[in-house]
Each structure stands twice: as structure tokens, then as C-alpha cells.
UniProtKB/TrEMBL annotation, chains A, B:
The keyword Transmembrane helix does not apply. Keywords: Fatty acid metabolism, Ligase, Lipid metabolism. This is Acyl-CoA synthetase. Residues 433-461 form the AMP-binding enzyme C-terminal domain. GO terms for molecular function: ligase activity. It comes from Dictyobacter kobayashii. PROSITE patterns: AMP_BINDING (PS00455).
């Protein structure tokens, strides 16, 4: 491949190389009593990569990880691409058969498993695997994962990357029907999305990021790479335990964490909840934050950012950018505005809401349509699944399956998953709209609205 | 060209499109009594672009601007690429013959000239130009520039961009000998550098950026695009008048400005200088800040960032990233550390200091070598000047002509321009090293050391 003086292939590995160069002694990772500097993190990554190469890993060979948010899984986000492989970070909440399907479908040759999840794979037929490496997450020399690293070498591994559009990872996502689909991310997409997250969350070298969001979920929305890009500190977390998290907020002086509203609700209602000295930027996705939750977060000195995306969009694709003039509006109005999904990130194209002919719906906040997206924040397709790829990426756009409206100010707002719309008396009822109305009541924390068969109406909404 | 669902060509035009979409009513540009919202800025840009298209502008045709930091020159940074042309922003401090050379060499067909600089072109033979448009910078309907815009249309112009490696601008740079060379920037480079500046300077939608740095200089280090990327506000400035700038710091609540140490020194020593309520992030390039200046800036509530680069690197390429532990060191030691040029930006490759065989010099802070750079922060070459391109970009790296050392902590530090090294008694003397020693004296504000012929030593240093 021609080497141009003015071009470097975009790869998030450069973020680790740079932070290890500039901040070698700075704390890169904290995990309980253990911590690693950027120099140490880089050396561990190169050990893992060089060991895999020595074992015969081929370019683009898949390497699977089944872990909670530990240093090992973070290291994998650099070591597997550094070795030239493709990372498959498996959702640890899946059942054994689903995990078996993913291992087989991805054709993974290596599997790294945290000790906690070892029972999940014991009953599986794993003949296709060359090696299974157990991670005790102890950091001690007898930990099989540490022994694996010890057999590698700490020097940088020569890159095999030729084109930034090569696949860096495959993230399996489960629909309601059928087998999980493997969403392919590119080096270019991972790089640009990581920078976007840095900009949207305001990460810098003083930031301390707490890993409440699973790293297996869209590669942790690319924060696995973004936090490293600015030389900030990753605080790992085996599980979301609100009491422990409140301790970490203070002991580690956390500045950022991400999660679904449920995570934030658990935290806001914990007995240890109190106003923090430092401000924490909290990014919320998965469902719109309720007015009650937003008010609570502010009281705790948390700055909420509401984003929206899917596995096929590297995690967040849109953000509800805050307008300074909203601050003077009544709380409920602020919450209503912030509950919208907003518009594309700085590296994303405009998100559109379209009718079945892929024409934009009216920007009237009422006409429903499907949300579609394309460009650098959209994945390459589904691994070895051309039918599903053709269907979901038809017409050059990714079809989210999410139903929303387009407001006059360009912001989009979700109304439902296509399959969740309740058809009652022939009329479409948005479950999200009913939910958003219910959560405005201060006595309601969270709610979910589903369709119940009804003799008169066909379906009728019920809240749980 | 194949349209991939997961790829959008990187272009900084997307930043304006996005900010006009998300922040239509937010102030994009302030210029004295005038101001434009993002919606207005976008419409003015499309008017300029559509008018040029209507006049027959061809793809990649050059369009020259000779202006101070006015809205017109900022608009040009979007309108010329939007039209499919290539922007040539000319240094307004050049002489008439130099400007004539640039117009001719670039083959510009259109020239936009601010009224203040009209005398500079009056004596030139401008036969090759299709049209000269005078900018009165009044914003009034009778301003010829405003009339030009009025003849255009405010709707988005269909993009002709096919490849992000196309040239977006040509920035002419003068060496000490020979004619100016036209440094070609790509859409990809402009985009990535703009994002880097956002991250390094910590720009966000609340930022108010003051245009002390000339926009003709490396396209304003890509801040022309970066400030827009986050929906921040540009405050234009016809000239660097310290008294006026101190007024703007307060009246416009400025949060960021950039410049050479001289600009900062003028400001720090002005009678109006006083500690500001808001913190201003000031990015310093062109020469290392002295300990005296750094101390003064801190007292004024300014946060200094020291960067280094050249026209061939889109402006800044390296940054002296701050280490928190430095804050506990004595002031002189902090200043000594911050006077170093540091290492590559987040989107840049490692800057190297090499011997004449392009081998890395020892990381000993003493061995001198040439600073070389490559990758996405390096320009494409010199326009229609293959000899100079071959020379400066030899071996796949851009040769800066700057002489520096490489410290053990990976940071580089400049010692001299290759041509400025003083050879006295057969020994190399770094003018910068002598200068840095002199400015440590609190009575010395600025100094420059040059070689003077000497009977005994050949050359000897003198400070001015």
C-alpha cells in the first residue's frame, strides 16, 4: 500500500501509544487495590498481543472475551487489534446457548473467560477453540491470564493494519427473534467515535471515568478508547453495586460515568446518595431520563447528558445538545426538552425520521416515522449475515427500527420500538409517550407500558 | 464513487451544517456591533458559494482572500470549499509583489479584498482574475461583498466532494529565500486538526473564541473550523489592539484566544491588564513562553497551553501536555518544563528528532537533530512545486528545518532554526538556549539573539 506522508490510517491504538509516551507514570487503570500506569498498561497490552502472535494468531482472526469490566477486558480493546485480530466482547448476561452460538458464529479461536463466568461455558462444545484462558482477575502471578501475559513480550508489536476500514471488533446484538447478529466496527469508526465521546462528555487528562457501563456493550460506547485518548483514568468495576459506587465517587474523585436511567435511579435513591463536591458528568442512554430523575441528579451535582444510539451505531449517535436559554425554563419544561434524543454527534450525519418510502416526515413533533442513520458512526454490517445486512442497511441507511417524531427545531424524539407500538382501536399508541406522562408524577420512579389483549380495543396499554 | 453506508468523507463543512441545524439561533459570529446566528452564518456561506457557482466556478478552482479577521474571511473558510473551490487566504502583511506572486502562482480566478488592503493590489497586473470583489466590512447593503452575497441563494449547495484527500486550501508560506510556497491542506486533515484543537483547548458550546490569531495563518490553526464544530462563538477582530482586546475580554466574556508570546506580552503589560473573573485558555506558539510571562498570565487568570507547529502541519502539531505533579514544583522549574514543545497532538504521530540519516537522536536532552513529522497533521505538499515538495517531504516525513533535542520523557524542545545556529569557535550555539537564559531575568521581557561576525570566533551571539 502506498505510504503517503500526509496520511496515517486512523486507529484507536494510537491513543494508547501516545498516552504511554506522554503520560508513562500517570494512572491509566484503577481496579480495587490494583492500579496500572499508562506505561504498564501498554506493556500488558503488548504482552497479550505478542503472545497471541506467537501462538499463531492470523490477521482478522476473532478473539473472544467473556468478562465483567476488568483490566483484562480493557486491555483486550488494544491488544486484540494490536495483534491484528478482531475483538469479540461477549455480553456476560447471555445464556450458555447464546454464548455458544456467538463463539461458533464468530469462529473465535481464542476465548478469555473471567472466573465468574466460567460456569457459563462448561457445558458447551468448544472444539473449535484453540485455547481457553481463564482470568482470575487477581493480578497475581498464578492467575492464568497473568501467566499468559508473562509469556509475551512488552515491546510494541508491529502493526498489520493496512486500511482503517478493516474490522476492529464484532459486537453481537440480540433481537427479539432469531440468533444474535455480529455488528462489525471499523478502526476508522472506533477512532472517530472515541473522539466524539471525548468532545461530547468533555473528557480531558484530569478526568476519572467509572466503568458502570459494560465494556461488552458497543465496546463501552468507545469510551474504552476515548478515555485513553486524553490520558484520563479508567476505574474498573466488576458489578454495579450502588453502595460501592458511592464510595468510589469520593475515594477516586470520579468525574464521569455512563448508563441507562435505571443505573442512575439506583444511585440517586441509595441511602449514601448526597451532593458531591466535584461535578460528575453522567451520560444517559437507553431511555429518556424522567423529570424526577433529572432534578435528583442536579441536586447530587451531576450534569446529565442524554444520548441515543444502538449497537449498529457504536453506541450513542445522537445527543440532546443543551441550549443555555433552557436554563430559565420551568423544571418540567427543561425535562421535556432534555428527554428528546436530539441530533447527530459532531462526527455523525444528520439522523433522519422517515416514512416507509424513506422520505423525511414533517418536522412537526407529531408525525411518526422510523429513525435512520448513516456515515462514520454507523457499523459496517453484520458479520457473515448478508441477508440481515441487506435488510437493516437498505438504501444506504441503517434502519434502527425505532419510531420517532421530528421536532421543528431539528431534534428527534423516540416514540417507540417499531414492534412495541400498541394498536388500540386501530390507533397507534406510543408506549414511550404514555411512560413519559406517567413518570412526570413525582411518586413515579420508573415505569414500563406494554400491550394487553383487550376485547373491545384489540390491545390496550397497561403500565407495570 | 461507491457510497458506503458506514463512511462519510470527512469535511469541516459538516461542522457548520450541524451547528446551523442544532444551534440555529445561537450567536456564531460577533464583529463589533454586528453579529450573526449560526443560521445566518450558514445562509451567508451558501449565498457566497452559490454565487461563485453561478459565475462558473469549476471544481478545485482557487479563490483568494486578502482580509483581516473579518466575518467575510471566516465565511470563506466554508463557502469556498462548499462551492468546490480551494481557498487561498493571503497573508495581509506581505508586500504587493509577494501578493502578486501568490495570486499568479495559485492561478486564482477570484479575489476578495478588504478595503484596507486594496492599495496593496492596485499596482498589480491582475489580468488573470475573472473578478475582484471589494469588502467594505460594513455589513451594509451597499458593501460590494454584501451585494455579491445578495446575488446568491441561501439554500445548501450540493457538494462536489468525492474524496476527503482533496485539497481544501492553499496557504502560502515564505521562506527566507525564494518565492512563497503554497502548502496544500486536505479536507481530512482540516477536519481532524479541527477536532484536535477542540480537544486540546477544551472548546465547547459555551466557549467564546477571540480572533487574535490571523485566519490567514494556517487557516487560523483550523480554529476557523474547530470553534464552529462545537457551536461556540467566533469574535472577529480587525487588528490586535490590546486596549480593545481588554474591553472584549469583559464585554464578550472571552474564554479562548491564541497567539505568539508577543501578543500575550502586549496584553499582559497593558495598563488595562487585571485579573479576569472568567478563566481564559491561551494557546501560545511561535516561541516558548518565558517564566515571567507564564507567571503574569496566571495572575491574570489565564491558562497557558504551549504548542508548536508550522504551516506545513496545519499550525500546531505538538503540545506540551501539562502533568499535574508539575504544579508543586518551583515556578522557574514549571516554566522550564512548559517552555518545551512537547509531543504530537491526539491526532498526530510521534514527532521525531533525527540525525542527517533520519535516525532518532538520543533522548538525552542534549543531542541536537532536526524535528520531523508525518501523518494526518501534515500537509499534502507544495502546490505546483514538486522540487520543494520532494525536498521537504523526503523519505515520507516532513522536514521542519527546526533543530531540537529529545528529552528522556519523550518531549522535544527546539534549540534553533537550522539556518540560525550560531557557529562560534567551531561550536554550535543555540540562539533559543541563550534567549531562554536571558528571559529568565525578571527585567527581561523578550529578546532575540543573532550572530554577529567576530574576528576571533567567526560568529558571536548578541542579544537585541
Amino acid at each position: 500500500m502506498e505510504q503517503k506522508v500526509y496520511r496515517t490510517e486512523l486507529t484507536p491504538l494510537s491513543f494508547l501509544e501516545r498516552s504511554a509516551l506522554i503520560f508513562p507514570d500517570k494512572t491509566a487503570v484503577i481496579h480495587g487495590e490494583r492500579s496500572y500506569t499508562y506505561q504498564e498498561m501498554a506493556e500488558r497490552v503488548y504482552r497479550l498481543a505478542s503472545r497471541l502472535r506467537a501462538l499463531g494468531l492470523q490477521k482478522h482472526e476473532r478473539v473472544a472475551f467473556l468478562c465483567p469490566n476488568t483490566p483484562a477486558l480493557l486491555e483486550a480493546h488494544y491488544a486484540i487489534p494490536a495483534a491484528g485480530g478482531i475483538l469479540v466482547a461477549i455480553n456476560n448476561r447471555l445464556s450458555s446457548p447464546e454464548i455458544g452460538f456467538i463463539l461458533q458464529h464468530s469462529g473465535s479461536k481464542y476465548l478469555f473467560v473471567d472466573h465468574e463466568f466460567f460456569p457459563l461455558i462448561e457445558a458447551l462444545n468448544l472444539e473449535q477453540l484453540t485455547q481457553i484462558i481463564r482470568i482470575d482477575d487477581s493480578g497475581a502471578p498464578e492467575d492464568p491470564y497473568e501467566q499468559f501475559l508473562a509469556a509475551g513480550t512488552p515491546e510494541p508489536v508491529k502493526s498489520w493494519l493496512e486500511d482503517e476500514e478493516e474490522t476492529i471488533s464484532i459486537n453481537y446484538t440480540s433481537g427479539t427473534t432469531g440468533n444474535p447478529k455480529g455488528v462489525m466496527y471499523t478502526y476508522r469508526g472506533a477512532y472517530l467515535n472515541a473522539l466524539s465521546e471525548v468532545i461530547e462528555s468533555g473528557l480531558n487528562s484530569s478526568s476519572i471515568y467509572l466503568w458502570t457501563l459494560p465494556m461488552f456493550h458497543c465496546n463501552g460506547w468507545c469510551f474504552t478508547w476515548g478515555v485513553t485518548a486524553v490520558g484520563a483514568t479508567h476505574v474498573c468495576l466488576r458489578k454495579v453495586d450502588p453502595s460501592h459506587i458511592w464510595e468510589l465517587f469520593e475515594s477516586e474523585k470520579i468525574t464521569h460515568y455512563n448508563g441507562a436511567p435505571t443505573v442512575h435511579i439506583f444511585l440517586a435513591h441509595h441511602p449514601k446518595a448526597h451532593r458531591l463536591e466535584q461535578q460528575i458528568t453522567v451520560t444517559i442512554a437507553g431511555a429518556p431520563p424522567s423529570p424526577t430523575l433529572l432534578a435528583q441528579l442536579k441536586q447530587l451535582n451531576m450534569r446529565p447528558i442524554h444520548v441515543y444510539g444502538l449497537t449498529e451505531t457504536y453506541g450513542p449517535y445522537t445527543v440532546c445538545e443543551w441550549h443555555e436559554e433552557w436554563a430559565s425554563l420551568p423544571q418540567e419544561e427543561q425535562a421535556r426538552l432534555l428527554a428528546r434524543q436530539g441530533q447527530g454527534y459532531v462526527t455523525a450525519e444528520r439522523a433522519r425520521v422517515v416514512d416507509p418510502n424513506m422520505q423525511d416526515v414533517a418536522w412537526d413533533g407529531a408525525t411518526m416515522g422510523e429513525v435512520i442513520m448513516r456515515g462514520n458512526n454507523v457499523a459496517k454490517g453484520y458479520y457473515e449475515n448478508p441477508e440481515a445486512t441487506a435488510r437493516s442497511f437498505e438504501g444506504g441507511w441503517f434502519h434502527s427500527g425505532d419510531i420517532g417524531v421530528w421536532h421543528a427545531d431539528s431534534y428527534i424524539e423516540l416514540r417507540d420500538r417499531a414492534k412495541d407500538v400498541i394498536i388500540s382501536g386501530g390507533e397507534n399508541i406510543s408506549t414511550i409517550e404514555v411512560e413519559q406522562t406517567l413518570v412526570q408524577h413525582p411518586a413515579v420512579l420508573e415505569c414500563a407500558v406494554v400491550a394487553i389483549p383487550d376485547e373491545t380495543w384489540g390491545n390496550a396499554p397497561r403500565h407495570l
